[in-house]
Hints:
The chain has 14 helices and 14 strands. The protein has helices at about 10, 15-30, 35-50, 60-70, 85-95, 115-120, 140-150, 200-210, 235-240, 245-265, 285-290, 320-330, 360-370, 380-395, and strands spanning about 55, 80, 100-105, 125-130, 155, 165, 170, 175-180, 195-200, 270, 295, 305, 310-315, 370-375. α11 links the parallel β10 and β11 (about 295). α2 (about 15-30) runs antiparallel to α9 (about 235-240), α3 (about 35-50) crosses α9 (about 235-240) and α4 (about 60-70) runs parallel beside α5. Pyridoxal-5'-phosphate binds near residues 85 and 193.
Amino acid sequence: MNIPLLDVNAQNLPLEAELLETFARVLRSGRFILGEEVEAFERECAALVGAKHALSVSSGTDALLLALMALEIGPGDEVLCPAFTFFATAGSIARVGAVPVFCDVCPVCFNLDVNSLSERITERTKAIMPVHLFGQSADMGPLRELASRHGLVVIEDCAQSIGSRHKGESCGLMGNVGCCSFFPSKNLGGFGDGGLVVTNDDALAELMAQLRNHGMHPRYVHHRIGGNFRLDALQCALMRVKLPHYASYVAGRQRNASFYLSTLANHPLVQEACTADCCCVERQFERLHAAGTRLLLPHAYEYNEMIWNQFTVRVLGEGERERFRSWLTQHGVANEVYYPIPLHRQKCFAHLPAHALLDCPVADQLAAQVVSLPIYPELTPEQLQHVAATILHYLDT
Ligand SMILES: *Cc1c(COP(=O)(O)O)cnc(C)c1O
């Protein structure tokens, strides 16, 4: 049995007739840039997140760039961000001329560790960019407290967590602006590149709408330099076909995660990553290692609505991850390492000032141990069973 990490056709082809009709409708409308389809999609996305404003943009990366530009972050500024995330988080900070200052993360939820943040604040710090990695929110309470104490803006990277919630609040609306992605592997996968910014701030929304279109307002009048960050009408129209199904996509991922967790948790060599109900307090790695644990399961804090963009386990022991990965691959189970090199160790950031590159031991450890397994909503019971059986079999060898 071969199980891919993601099967976009399994999600899109059941909607094929409706998608083709939609393509025909946009084709015949002759309206490809901005306009009704884009506005309707944005209204529907705003409703999904519960945001006052949602603006579609050309990618998740451009959403981050646009947010940074609108908040006037640039040369001389520093932005705190996690060392363990996708490259775009830090790449966008560097692209506006600011310095990404890499912070360590929580070993349980993999998101920003507030203790690590406060050690790295200087008088140049302007913003914090938390990432809600793998579908679960960062611990935003202490982070926001820190931000307001130091007068910092908060830009949430929600690329992997659109529609996810934290203590009843929506990811993307807990800071100044939230940045989402419709890259096909994200929970709301589009038909190419795409992204979204969400905010409850009227002035910021207005400014981002202008910057998305060369800073133009009104026509051919430019008070600021923006860019072309627009999302195609065609892409918006096609994604409108998928939006009504979003809740069921999320439910599918949650169902699959529950299956893995309940099937794997009883094995004596497997542990849940955490028993605490609070981020960044549980540091039981050494104890687990001593107890002979080989696999740590992902943990969703009770106060988070986890939407499982990835199901990421940690394989303990020198060289064990590579052995585990070959076993999975041999048995037809696709898998991937998100992310193998923490950002504070990337060559392109080597020139940054030393205090941007301080040690991030948890990020290093995660980069060496994590493996993500197939979790997409359309996995069949047989496929799920095969993945779990393959892992249990591995643990018994
Ligand atoms: C995917 C992703 C992005 C970038 O989104 P694109 O749409 O691919 O540009 C940014 N941050 C994180 C955490 C991501 O996972």
